[in-house]
Specification:
This protein is α/β, with parallel strands linked by helices. The protein has one domain: Rossmann fold (3-Layer(aba) Sandwich), CATH 3.40.50.
């Protein structure tokens, strides 16, 4: 291997071990599979579906006729999901719009503070986006159970949530489009992530009169991408609300460069297995918004026969299980490609670059905070520095913080400072 390839492999190993990225389809969907989805025949899957908690079935009627951002169901969440500082933790469903423009339901958690420190009608609202867990319904944080293989990533935002709850802030945590509810999850697609954040803020503020007129979009890794997209001029404001700030912890940027380096690796093993699973999630996410790309992958030789046989795993397993040898983790990167694999890989790189947060036209009136870990090799330091420099060169108001941490621990280490910064946006 040449030096560049070794460095790239090291980055991918660290990236996957650090945990973070995006999500995807939907195990247990009530929509039939697309005719273009390959069928898995033969013996039952070697890996059982990723464990998940049961959630109440959909009971709302006529929700398709409500405007996006309307809360249609609230249920007491399992005690397992309760955090110190929360008077109530609720599993909720709200209306939204999917990437095709169709009415859809989305789910998430709403945490109401135990000791509100603001007058009614003034409660601060923070929408907090989670890091990558996978693409199946089981990967939705609101479906978390004690035996979930993605529990650590699902709970990574808990410390920030506790800090905010203790200071009278309402914290809402969306699952994102297609996670936990019908439909695929458009992994790392900025429009979809911004829609999830915006519609949840409107739904919460519209349901609880105690919530004020301002909200902050925050998140970690994929959630950091969601928060930044919420502050883009490309996206409308939430209904009857004003965005007061954006907090992005370890946002993923320039992922196409890591994909390029990894393509030629002929081996698998610890670290590379998770990189392959992540690449599969990326491909799945692009396929949800691009029918031509989906045909290229599934019908026209973009994926190898082995990869085609594993495609259904993306809608029943979360990231850790996808990384196992019995699933995508057993494929070396060079064995992902079919006869037209180079075309598919080039399209993945193009789509990642086009939708990268470094190109977002951010709002000039919304302050941005970006937190990165010095030892983070998912959203590693050089790329983070370039992102901040680009934003500042464009005239955006950016506060930038570096922490002696890897990808996942950065959010916990920065939690107190982040909570202070957020509260300042509401004074």
């Amino acid at each position: 291997m040449n030096k560049q390839l070794i460095i790239g492999l090291f980055l991918l190993l660290a990236a996957c071990g650090g945990g973070g990225g995006g999500g995807g389809g939907a195990a247990g969907n009530d929509t039939p599979p697309s005719p273009s989805e390959p069928d898995r025949e033969g013996p039952p899957p070697l890996i059982p579906d990723t464990p998940q908690a049961e959630v109440p079935p959909v009971s709302a009627k006529g929700w398709q006729f409500y405007e996006p951002g309307t809360l249609v169901e609230t249920h007491e969440a399992d005690d397992f999901l309760h955090l110190d500082g929360a008077a109530r933790t609720l599993f909720v469903r709200y209306t939204t719009v999917d990437v095709l423009g169709n009415p859809a339901l989305a789910s998430g958690l709403v945490m109401l503070p135990e000791q509100p420190q603001f007058a009614e009608g003034e409660w601060p609202l923070v929408i907090y986006g989670h890091m990558t867990t996978g693409a199946a319904d089981a990967c939705a944080p609101s479906h978390a159970s004690a035996d979930s293989t993605e529990l650590q990533k699902m709970q990574q935002g808990d410390e920030i949530a506790r800090k905010l709850l203790s200071r009278g802030v309402v914290v809402a945590r969306p699952d994102y489009e297609g996670l936990g509810e019908s439909g695929p999850h458009p992994y790392l697609r900025g429009d979809s992530l911004a829609q999830a954040m915006r519609d949840m803020s409107s739904a919460v503020a519209g349901h609880w009169d105690e919530v004020g007129d301002y909200w902050v979009a925050a998140g970690h890794s994929e959630g950091g991408v969601a928060a930044l997209n919420s502050g883009s001029r490309l996206h409308p404001e939430a209904r009857d609300l004003t965005l007061a700030g954006v907090v992005s912890v370890t946002p993923v940027t320039q992922l196409e460069n890591l994909v390029l380096i990894a393509e030629a690796l002929p081996i698998t093993g610890l670290g590379i297995n998770e990189a392959v699973a992540l690449a599969a999630l990326v491909a799945h996410g692009i396929a949800t918004v691009d029918p031509d790309f989906k045909r290229l992958l599934l019908e026209e030789g973009g994926l190898s026969e082995r990869a085609l046989a594993l495609w259904p795993d993306l809608e029943r397993l979360c990231l850790g299980d996808l990384s196992r040898p019995e699933s995508w983790g057993g494929l070396p990167p060079t064995e992902l490609k079919g006869p037209r694999g180079d075309e598919a890989a080039a399209e993945i790189r193009r789509a990642l670059a086009a939708d990268d947060v470094r190109h977002l036209p951010m709002r000039f009136d919304v302050p941005i905070r970006i937190d990165v870990g010095i030892f983070d090799l998912v959203a590693h330091l050089p790329y983070a520095e370039q992102l901040v420099a680009t934003y500042r060169d464009n005239g955006y108001d950016v506060d930038y913080y570096r922490w002696p941490a890897a990808h996942s621990p950065t959010a916990d280490m920065a939690a107190g400072s982040i909570a202070d910064w957020i509260l300042e946006r509401f004074y």
